[in-house]
Structure formats: structure tokens, C-alpha cells
């Protein structure tokens, strides 16, 4: 089933490949993998290995860039399947479910990232899972949700440094969501933060140690405030708000979350906070990433509409989003 | 002519007040139990008084079995199992040469006929109490019971017992493997060290990854309750089965008294509860303390003969021999089970089908916050019992039972052969044996609170015994690998190897990997390159880091699930705790070679915290440590 979700995206990548298109992201990962191998058996080339997971895949998978496109399609396929499963389990009407899923697959930028930008689609998938798990963990004390949130963010750190910013956004959101409970249960706020932050903290520290051990150099995050600190923040805020404007489903989802359970809005807004900091710090922000992250977050947090008005609003927002993606996208897809 | 009801007889004889009788009759309507059993269990009437009255009414003499000698030739004609099952015992011959048989049932012609058929000659029937019957059986068949408790499993199938540590084929294979490693070390020392290190790191990662994956499955179903409170409320007290509680105690004089309180809270009709206190013959202090505690009539003392092997499973086998319950559970003397645990276990059994032979309740600690070791122990138990075992159950994989709070179907347990007295983690072994024979073990959402070990040396002794037991279990069940795979299936066997073999292996692998980690901190990879190629070093370090990271995380989550938030950050020192495991594991290996069946005593009663609260160091609560 999951493969069937991934198949169209892989076919798209294959089609682009036969027309001579090479994904810039995947080509760069291939070069990095070659540089790691060139570093020799003592692994001195590890300083070229970040982000380690896609670089490792580029090094071991036969088939070059196309193989990475296959993995990207697989990630997207799994995520779409999980989303479809959730929509069915939440008894979302078929017409809404189809519109929501269409908003993810019928948008050129989403299809592009899902087939030609492994790190972006991977962290999108992982962030979406993390938000879902995080909400269950913080609000319902569902520890499986905590596992999913912590591990997803940690794994995302293997694909992009943006995960660090995202983890901080989740940590900031936690006390706002369950503040009342934290006040009544001594130590639960610290415990919640530990559960969310430990995996990514550990993975990052472990990677820093391994890289230092094999290369002698301590990797430092290449965070830069483009155009100055305050100006940079202003520009980042405008950029992210512009991206939010192109994802009407996300905006509608925020409204519905505020209406149903205001405290959950903080978790829902975590991706915006993360994108804002990523854009401000120059930590892996891209308009394509912003689009897919917000679009997938909107779908994974959708619940069964209470009435026909909400149903109609969801279908309308999904349709509008697809239209915007085709005619007013902030991202220029290479073959478009 | 209609008989006068026994209750009225007791009131008439002044042994009971009319109010007490009313209460007993109300209880009888609710539970369907015998009136006499209710009165005795409630302590309203002494057992002997009741049975003497019954003897008068049934026109038969009362036989004081506990106080009279037993004729071995008569006992030799029948088996203790038959006598326990049918509720009678031959005692002696009358002067006319006819055997006197004591029964706990009404001596009807049918009963008499059945007994005469079993003994092969006419008998005189007398009446005795159930307590006397058990004492008589234990005394009359002491040698047989002791022998059966020690060697029964081994006689039935030597390959299922840890009495022989290594079978010849295992010795040959082990020697061949060691020779191969030694030969390789001589021929190519560098490559051998590198290969061993890579192998150790893979073992560590495989063991940890398996546990983590199982815990994730357990976490996914954490909201699922095997038995809900509504289920318990819906369970009628009427016609509940007899439940036997085995409590092995050894040198635990100071906790025997607590036992009465802890078990007294169990929500189960007292007349359907049989508590067998398993005492050791050479432990006069605990025997005296138990007598002084003046336990209720539901308690029966069973003194286990003083011979080798002197282990808890042997005592439990004696208890199993005498148990009259349909179900059985083991508790330690200091255990505090949730009051509804027996009912939850019964519901789990009724839902679980005939193959379900055992359900394990969760264990946790009441003195978690006492010191760093009790905190770490609590973290470990929280993830093990709240994630790991439910995960194994969900995946239908073998479950190694925990030390106490395992509930059994008595007939199935007897069929399995009881506990292996030569295995020092007899509980884990029994869980695996059940799986190997196609039976299942489940878990039930009820907790028993215990005392966590607070002293490092004591902890290492206890843990070394557990790890030695895991190694014994591994060796026992790996004796017939093909048969094991055929019976249990490849999936079950793989899980068994990863769990029972993987656990000691990960602890044994930890020190060399920690040493490599430390070396890599101070020496550059080029300096280590002569011994470890870059990829070996990389794999070893990454596996070590990943393994420790996963175990820290799963420990954090276990504490979170239990609502013990203050313990969550303590999970960060899990790597130090693992070092203690490693020390214990090397001691375990050494003992497996030198003293394979030696039972390392664990001291109980070290805690300075009162079971009900957190009063560390509260004067008056301090207790003397005892061994058990």
C-alpha cells in the first residue's frame, strides 16, 4: 500500500531523470559521499558527511541521484499512507480526505520535494509525525506520542540542522500547552522537556563527538543573521508569513484548533516558530520546505469536521491551496 | 429427619453468636462458599472445633493427624497427589488391624468405598481438618516430596534442568569456539581484536535495538488495559476458585509480620484463599517469628527439609506439591500487591484460553527515592514491566517471568514440571519453558510494590544471580536447537536468544566498549589505527553511543509513564548503572563455572523508608537487614 503511494512520485523522478534533469540537492549529496570515501579508511572525510543520513544513503545506494529520489518518494509514500490512515481512523468524510490528500500530491512543489529533495521531504515527514506525537504526549500524557516526537526530531537531525530549531520550538510550546498540569504535578515540566529534547540532544552530541574524533574539528552550526539581527528577523517574519499565506489549509487548521482547544494551538504553531528561526538564523530554511511542512502539518492534525460548514471550509481551503500552488507558488519548480 | 444446620449447632454449643452466624450466612449467600470454611477463615471458629462437631454429627471419630504417627506401609500404597486431590489420608492400624483413614469429607458409603478400593482393604473412617491433612501429607511423604521438588524435573527430562550445566555437545562446541578465537589471536592478533570488538558492538546494538523495538510496541498499546476496573467490579464473588499463595521466606524474621498486613488486603474471599508460608528447616528464627505473628487460619506453615539444592524454586515446588488451589501466585514476604490483583489475574486467565499458563503482574518499588541505586532500579523495572513485557505479550514472544507476582494455573504448572530448583532464575526459565512447549504467558495490569535494593554490594550479588540464571536458561534451552525451533518456531527462538542471551551479552560487552570509548577520547584515530581500522572504531563508537542513548531514553519514558517525573533525569546516568550490571555479569560468568547452583543471598529489609511513605531515616522505622 505504502509503495503504491510512493510509486507515482518515483515515476515522476524517473521521468525527469530520462529527460536529463539532475536534482541539485541529490547531486550535492553524491559529491559529499564521494568526499567521505576519499577521506580514506581512517574516516578523515567525515567532515563532509553532514547531513549524515542522506549522505550515507548516497554513498551506499547504487543508482546515483535517482536512488535518492526513490528514497524520497518512499518517505513521501509512507507519510501519505500514514496520513490517509489517520484520516480514515478519525472518520473524516471521504470528500474531505480526498481533497486534503490532493492538496499534498497535486501541488507541484510538494511533488518536486517528494521526488527530488530527500532531506526536505524526510524532515517534513518526521516533523509532521513529531507534531502529532508531541500533541498526544503533552496533552494526553501518551508516552508513545513522546517516543514518536522525540525520535522523529532526533532522526530529522540526521537530515537537516533545521531539526534543532524545530526541537527548540516544541520545547517552548510544551509548557504553554500543559501549564496547568505542570503546576500540579511536580517535576513534570522538566520531565516533558527531557523526553522531547533528549534524543536530538544526544544524537547531536554524539555526532559532534564522532566528527571531532575522526577529523579533529568540532563542527559548528553555520547560523548567520542575514542582513543583521533585527533586520534579519523582520525579513524572516515576512518570508514565513508569506509562506503561511500560501497554505490556506494551515491557516484554517489554526483557526479550528484555537476554536476547539486553544492550548493545542501552541503545538500547532511550532512549525511556524521553527521556520521563523530557521529563516532568521539561516539554518536550512527554504520556501519549498516551508510549504510542504505547513501543508503536511495541516493535514496530519485535521479532525473529523463537526458540521457541514467545517467540511465545506476544509474542501474549499484544499482547493484554494492547490490553485495557489499552481498559479501563485512562492517556489519555482525547475521544470515548471 | 433433617439435620440441624452446622451454624445453629455452633451457636447452640456457644462457639458462635447469632450475629456472627448472620454475618457468615450473608457471606455464604454472596460467595457460595461452605459455611464452615467462612467461619474458620474469618477466625470466628477454630478449625478443630468445627471438625470435631462435624465428626460428632457424622458419627465418626475425630483424628488428630498432626499429633499422631503415620504408618509408612499404608502411605506407600497411594500417592500424595491422590490423597491431596481426594482429601483423605491413612494414618495407622486399629488394634483389630483395620486401617484408620482420616478424611475431610462427610464419610458417606461412596467415600468409604472409594478409599477401600484405593487401599485394597476395609477401613475405619475418621474426620480431620484440611490443615491436618496438609501437615499429614507433608510429614508422611516428606522424603518423596523433597526428592520430587529437587529432582522431579531432572528425572522427567534432564535436558530441561540446569542440574547439568553443559551437555557434552555443548562442551565440544564451546571448546571449539574458544580454540578458534585463541588460534586467531595467535595468528593475527590485531585482526582478531578488531573482529571481536566489532562483534561485541554489534551484539550490544542488536540486544538494545531488540529491547527498544519491543518497548515501542508496548508503548503503542499502553492505553490498553488487560482487565479494567469495571471488569473487576462485574466479577461476582460467587463460586470463585480456590487460590493458593506461595510465600517462600528464608531468614526474613523481621518482614514476616508485614506479610500478614500486605496479604490481608487482597480482595478475595478468605475461605477460598490458601497461603502456604514456605519456611526452611534450618531457619528457626523465621519459624518462631511466623508462629509469634499468629497468622489467620488461611495461613499454613510448610517447613522445607534442609537439603541441597537450597533454593527458592525447591521450596516453591514443595508448595506446589501441597497446593489445593486451582490457581497459584508467588509473593515475597515484603511484597505489597494491588488488592484486586487476584481477581484481575483470574479474569485474564478466563479470557486467555487454555494455552495461557501464567500471567505476570508488574513489579515496582515503594522506596524508589531512597538513593541513586533505588532510583535506577525503579527506572529499570518501570520500563521492563510497563513496556517490555506488554510488548513481548503483544508480539506473542516468550516472556521471562519476574521473581514474584506470577500467577499460574496449577494443573498447567504441574504439567510443565514446576520450577527448576537448579536454575537460579527459575522464573525466567519457566516462562521460556512454557513458550518452548507451545504455551503462552501473559501480563496483567496490576502492580506489586517491593523493596528496591539500596546497597551496591547487595545489588551486585542479586544481579549476578539473575544474570547467572539467564546464562543457565540459555544453556538449557539451547541444548536441542532443532527441537526448540520445531516446537516454538524461529521467531520465538530468535527473540529468546536476543532476550535471554542478549541481556548478559550486552552487559559483558559494555566494559571493552567503554574502554575503547575512553581510549578514543585520549588517543587519535591514527594512534588507534594499528589495532582498530577506522570503520571498526566508527561502528564500535556509534553502536555504543546509540545503544546507551536508546536505553537512557526508554528508561526516561518508563519513569514518565509511572508518573515518577523526578526520576526522569536520573536516566542520564544509566551508563554508570550499566557498569554495575557489567561487574555483576562477569561475576555471574565466574560463578557459572565455579558454583553454578549457588544461590546468592540478597539482603532484604535494608530500606529505611516505610513502605507506605517516604520517611527516609524516620526513627523507629529502621530495621535489621536479613538474608533471603
From TrEMBL, chain B:
The keyword Transmembrane applies. It comes from the Bacteria. The keyword Membrane applies. SUPFAM superfamilies: EspE N-terminal domain-like (SSF160246), Nucleotide-diphospho-sugar transferases (SSF53448). It is found in: Membrane. InterPro entries: Glyco_trans_2-like (IPR001173), Glycosyltr_2/OpgH_subfam (IPR050321), Nucleotide-diphossugar_trans (IPR029044), T2SS_E_N_sf (IPR037257), T2SS_GspE_N (IPR007831). The chain crosses the membrane at residues 165-187, 193-214, 496-523, 535-554, 566-586. Keywords: Glycosyltransferase, Membrane, Transferase, Transmembrane, Transmembrane helix. Pfam families: Glyco_trans_2_3, MshEN. Residues 59-141 form the Type II secretion system protein GspE N-terminal domain. It is a multi-pass membrane protein. Residues 328-531 form the Glycosyltransferase 2-like domain. PANTHER family: CELLULOSE SYNTHASE CATALYTIC SUBUNIT A [UDP-FORMING]. This is Glycosyltransferase. It comes from Cryptosporangium japonicum.
Amino acid at each position: 500500500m505504502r509503495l503504491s503511494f510512493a510509486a507515482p512520485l518515483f515515476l515522476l523522478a524517473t521521468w525527469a531523470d530520462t529527460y536529463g534533469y539532475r536534482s541539485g540537492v541529490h547531486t550535492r549529496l553524491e559529491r559529499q559521499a564521494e568526499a567521505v570515501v576519499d577521506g580514506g579508511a581512517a574516516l578523515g572525510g567525515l567532515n563532509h558527511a553532514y547531513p549524515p543520513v542522506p549522505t550515507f544513503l548516497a554513498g551506499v545506494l547504487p543508482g546515483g541521484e535517482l536512488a535518492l529520489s526513490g528514497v524520497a518518494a518512499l518517505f513521501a509514500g509512507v507519510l501519505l499512507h500514514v496520513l490517509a490512515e489517520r484520516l480514515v481512523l478519525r472518520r473524516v468524510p471521504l470528500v474531505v480526505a480526498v481533497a486534503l490528500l490532493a492538496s499534498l500530491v497535486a501541488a507541484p512543489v510538494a511533488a518536486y520535494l517528494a521526488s527530488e529533495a530527500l532531506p526536505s521531504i524526510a524532515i517534513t515527514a518526521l516533523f509532521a509525525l513529531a507534531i502529532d506525537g508531541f500533541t498526544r504526549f503533552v496533552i494526553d500524557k501518551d508516552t508513545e506520542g513522546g517516543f514518536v516526537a522525540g525520535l522523529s526530531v532526533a532522526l530529522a537531525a540526521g537530515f537537516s540542522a533545521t531539526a534543532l530549531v524545530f526541537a527548540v520550538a516544541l520545547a517552548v510550546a510544551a509548557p504553554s500547552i500543559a501549564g496547568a498540569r505542570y503546576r500540579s504535578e511536580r517535576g513534570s515540566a522538566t520531565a516533558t522537556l527531557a523526553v522531547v529534547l533528549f534524543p536530538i540532544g544526544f544524537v547531536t552530541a554524539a555526532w559532534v563527538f564522532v566528527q571531532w574524533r575522526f577529523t579533529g574539528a568540532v563542527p559548528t552550526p553555520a547560523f548567520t543573521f542575514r542582513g543583521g539581527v533585527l533586520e534579519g528577523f523582520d525579513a524572516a517574519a515576512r518570508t514565513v508569513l508569506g509562506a503561511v499565506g500560501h497554505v490556506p489549509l494551515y491557516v484554517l487548521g489554526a483557526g479550528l484548533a484555537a476554536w476547539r482547544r486553544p492550548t493545542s494551538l501552541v503545538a500547532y504553531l511550532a512549525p511556524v516558530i521553527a521556520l521563523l528561526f530557521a529563516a532568521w538564523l539561516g539554518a536550512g530554511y527554504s520556501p519549498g520546505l516551508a510549504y510542504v511542512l505547513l501543508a503536511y502539518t495541516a493535514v496530519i492534525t485535521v479532525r473529523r469536521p463537526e458540521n457541514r460548514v467545517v467540511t465545506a471550509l476544509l474542501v474549499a481551503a484544499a482547493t484554494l491551496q492547490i490553485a495557489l500552488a499552481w498559479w501563485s507558488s512562492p517556489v519555482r519548480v525547475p521544470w515548471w | 429427619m433433617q439435620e440441624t444446620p452446622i451454624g445453629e449447632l455452633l451457636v447452640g454449643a456457644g462457639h458462635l453468636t447469632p450475629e456472627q452466624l448472620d454475618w457468615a450466612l450473608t457471606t455464604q449467600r454472596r460467595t457460595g462458599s461452605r459455611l464452615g470454611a467462612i467461619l474458620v477463615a474469618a477466625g470466628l471458629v477454630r478449625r478443630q472445633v468445627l471438625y470435631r462437631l462435624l465428626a460428632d454429627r457424622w458419627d465418626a471419630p475425630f483424628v488428630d493427624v498432626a499429633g499422631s504417627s503415620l504408618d509408612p506401609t499404608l502411605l506407600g500404597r497411594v500417592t500424595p497427589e491422590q490423597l491431596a486431590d481426594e482429601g483423605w489420608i491413612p494414618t495407622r492400624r486399629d488394634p483389630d488391624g483395620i486401617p484408620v483413614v482420616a478424611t475431610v469429607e462427610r464419610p458417606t458409603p461412596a467415600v468409604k468405598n472409594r478409599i477401600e478400593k484405593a487401599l485394597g482393604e476395609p477401613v475405619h473412617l475418621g474426620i480431620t481438618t484440611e490443615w491436618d491433612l496438609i501437615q499429614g501429607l507433608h510429614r508422611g511423604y516428606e522424603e518423596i516430596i523433597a526428592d520430587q521438588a529437587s529432582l522431579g524435573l531432572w528425572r522427567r527430562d534432564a535436558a530441561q534442568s540446569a542440574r547439568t550445566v553443559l551437555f557434552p555437545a555443548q562442551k565440544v562446541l564451546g571448546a571449539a569456539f574458544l580454540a578458534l578465537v585463541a588460534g586467531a589471536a595467535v595468528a593475527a592478533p590485531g585482526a582478531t581484536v578488531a573482529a571481536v570488538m566489532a562483534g561485541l558492538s554489534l551484539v550490544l546494538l542488536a540486544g538494545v535495538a531488540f529491547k527498544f523495538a519491543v518497548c515501542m510496541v508496548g508503548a503503542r498499546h499502553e492505553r490498553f488495559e488487560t482487565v479494567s476496573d469495571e471488569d473487576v467490579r462485574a466479577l461476582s464473588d460467587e463460586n470463585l476458585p480456590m487460590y493458593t499463595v506461595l510465600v517462600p521466606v528464608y531468614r526474613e524474621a523481621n518482614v514476616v509480620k508485614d506479610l500478614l498486613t500486605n496479604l490481608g488486603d487482597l480482595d478475595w474471599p478468605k475461605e477460598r484463599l490458601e497461603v502456604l508460608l514456605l519456611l526452611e528447616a534450618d531457619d528457626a528464627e523465621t519459624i518462631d517469628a511466623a508462629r509469634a505473628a499468629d497468622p489467620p487460619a488461611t495461613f499454613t506453615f510448610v517447613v522445607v527439609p534442609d537439603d541441597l539444592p537450597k533454593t527458592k524454586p525447591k521450596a516453591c515446588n514443595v508448595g506446589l506439591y501441597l497446593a489445593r488451589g486451582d490457581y497459584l501466585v508467588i509473593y515475597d514476604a515484603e511484597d505489597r500487591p494491588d488488592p484486586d490483583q487476584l481477581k484481575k489475574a483470574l479474569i485474564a486467565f478466563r479470557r486467555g484460553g487454555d494455552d495461557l499458563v501464567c500471567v505476570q503482574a508488574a513489579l515496582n518499588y515503594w522506596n524508589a527515592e531512597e538513593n541513586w541505586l533505588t532510583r535506577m532500579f525503579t527506572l529499570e523495572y518501570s520500563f521492563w514491566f510497563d513496556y517490555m513485557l506488554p510488548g513481548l505479550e503483544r508480539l506473542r514472544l516468550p516472556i521471562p517471568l519476574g521473581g514474584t507476582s506470577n500467577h499460574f494455573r496449577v494443573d498447567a504448572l504441574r504439567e510443565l514440571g514446576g520450577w527448576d530448583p537448579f536454575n537460579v532464575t527459575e522464573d525466567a526459565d519457566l516462562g521460556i519453558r512454557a513458550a518452548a512447549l507451545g504455551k503462552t504467558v501473559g501480563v496483567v495490569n496490576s502492580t506489586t510494590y517491593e523493596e528496591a535494593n539500596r546497597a551496591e554490594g547487595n545489588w551486585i550479588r542479586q544481579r549476578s544471580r539473575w544474570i547467572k540464571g539467564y546464562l543457565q536458561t540459555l544453556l538449557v534451552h539451547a541444548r536441542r536447537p532443532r527441537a526448540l525451533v520445531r516446537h516454538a518456531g524461529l521467531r520465538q527462538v530468535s527473540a529468546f536468544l536476543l532476550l535471554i542471551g542478549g541481556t548478559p551479552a550486552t552487559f559483558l560487552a559494555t566494559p571493552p566498549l567503554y574502554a575503547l570509548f575512553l581510549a578514543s577520547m585520549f588517543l587519535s584515530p591514527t594512534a588507534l589505527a594499528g589495532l582498530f581500522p577506522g570503520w571498526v572504531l566508527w561502528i564500535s563508537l556509534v553502536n555504543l553511543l546509540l545503544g546507551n542513548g536508546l536505553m537512557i531514553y526508554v528508561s526516561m519514558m518508563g519513569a514518565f509513564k509511572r508518573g515518577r517525573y523526578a526520576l526522569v533525569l536520573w536516566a542520564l546516568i544509566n551508563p554508570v548503572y550499566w557498569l554495575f550490571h557489567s561487574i555483576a555479569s562477569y561475576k555471574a560468568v565466574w560463578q557459572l563455572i565455579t558454583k553454578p547452583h549457588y544461590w546468592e543471598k540478597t539482603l532484604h529489609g535494608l530500606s529505611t523508608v516505610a513502605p507506605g511513605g517516604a520517611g527516609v531515616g524516620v526513627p523507629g522505622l529502621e530495621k535489621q537487614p536479613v538474608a533471603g
